[in-house]
Amino acid sequence: MENQPTTNVNEKFNPNNFLIVPARTFEELKVGEIFRAPSRTLTDAHSAAFQTVSCDNHPVHYDDVWAKKHGHKAPVVHGLQVLAFTAPGATLFPHVIGEAFVAFTELSCKFLKEVNAGDTLYPALQIIALHPQGSTGIVETAATIHNQNGELVLSGTHKYLLKANSTI
């Protein structure tokens, strides 16, 4: 019984005590803030799993001979799979905005360099604009992914609709 955690049985349970970071409002966000995701090294297994889900069976994604014959150093990781690494949930961003989140409304991207199995990706979201709209606001982020060589392989934007402070 000595090693049992001590709790105050009279303390009312509050799920807000379990937040990873304190949630902030739209008005508390700042242009320039960066939310990084942990790096990930892609494997052939990741590509095979994505191919199964996407049903994209183009040989550039799995056939080493075909890929090299067409100017690639190896099979190319699916672009949409690379884009998926910009998912905000891989960062602290959804925890920071907490209950203010309404919707992920828009995204765009450019694929700048090919990605192959063995590459390590470093995704980040940086707030580049805040657009108040009365009871809501749009947070615009730059979405970037660099590889292990520091090369920018993906660049784009995300937009999120958040409730304003007065509506939370």
UniProtKB/TrEMBL annotation:
Q: Tell me the Pfam families matching this sequence.
A: MaoC_dehydratas
Return the InterPro entries for the record. Answer: HotDog_dom_sf, MaoC-like_dom, MCH/BMMD
Query: Where would I find the MaoC-like domain in this sequence?
Result: 32-127
Per its UniProt entry, which superkingdom is the organism in?
A: Bacteria
What protein does this entry describe?
Acyl dehydratase
